[in-house]
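Researcher: I'd like a structural prediction for the single chain below. Treat it as a standalone chain; there are no partners to consider.
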Amino acid sequence: MEDSEEPSDTQQSDPREKKGDSEEESFRLHMVTWNVATADPPDDVTSLLHLNSPKSPDLYVIGLQEVYSGPLRFVSDVVFDDPWSHLFMSTLAPRKYIKVSSMRMQGLLLLFFSKLEHVPFIRDIQATYTRTGLYGYWGNKGGVSIRLSFCGHTLCFLNCHLAAHMNYASERVDEFEYITDTQTFDCKKAPAILDHRLVFWFGDLNFRIQDHGMHFVRNCINKQTYDLLWSKDQLTMMKQKEQLLQEFEEGPLDFQPTYKFDLNSDTYDSSGKKRKPAWTDRILWRIRPKLLPPDEENENNVGLDAKRLKQLEEDVEYPLKIRQDLYTSIMEYSISDHKPVIGVFTLELRKMYETPLVRLQAEGDWSADIDAMVVYSPLQPFPSSTWDWIGLYKVGFSSVLDYITYTWVKDDEVAFNEEIIQVYVSKEEIPVQGGDCVLCYYCNALKCIIGISEPFQVQASKVAIEEGMLPERINGLDKAVSGDDFWN
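Model: Treating it as a single chain, here is the predicted structure.
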């Protein structure tokens, strides 16, 4: 199979995709990290996801730690979505977000959601994990990551749960470096975490507040003089010594430490252990360091190979900037001894491509009374295969796997000549009750949806109605979103 990142390079050189013509655009990213301490999900995550905010995010990234992973629960979670994933999917699907990717390693869970309109521009998706617990054999500690390209820009999200306890600050840094050194992806452009244009490192990083006594720490929290504690925050201290950590940025810790609370309260640990509060739950980011132009790097213009020259050109031609708009904890949730932390970011970037890879549509009338036709055509080259498929989804679907039915694409590889290709969907696979639906083309090589049709109406089966198989009044599929509002 072709390398998954190569198609992007091809797309950029397409003569109809003029370089530099597009303006920089802004995208809103909402991130969550929460050690849920094996608790079941709350009934409502409105505050956690800022669902009542006038500005809706383009992307959601949710990293959880200590998701319950007892033997029976974990086996069922492998087959079905775990309760946490189900909660976020059922909450966000009616708002036109789908789960693009997820990764689970025992208690660590990472979820990536996108507004549907951006999905065809999220490509080259891969996910992996690294165990660090019990000498690398146990998955209670470690990191899970999802990498992808968003409008051509390589992003990587790394959710970690690092070693606990006050005296293990160095071990936590060692674990982080081990994860970044060993996690690899099948991708020439960004084979390792730190090769990505933008990396987010977040999770229960377990760094504590050193030296200060309990009375001083709690007094600072009560007075909201958090800045008096920053210099003794272990992550801040380790940054002064570790070059890799210095490349990561973090917003000011202008919220009270998120660990450790009595359950179902806002009271810090009142047990006999009286653990000291700490900012264990963090969100940091790293923009890939810019290369110097050859004449500035050294006098002989030596040292920039083809890959690094391409990187330099990309940095100049397709700028990527990030701004953190909010960094805080959400105190109202008390099911865990940790409070969740959210970070809201604005990504400013110039798209490397403006069109989907495939255009597709439903041809003619669709109902369970007759075989239906899908028409599609490639708009740009991409690595097609006989494992590509087109899925029929109800409007308001929650993930790639939430299809009603699917059909394989043509056996022969798609040629880039804008030919119109037809495939059929058997009437037996079409929902009898009908409803508002869309079609999505899934590319197996890129592991993502690369084209989405406009919404269309599947008619209720006349045969079924005549034979009394349906009630007289048919509302169609259980629609989370009306077809008219699909792209709005």
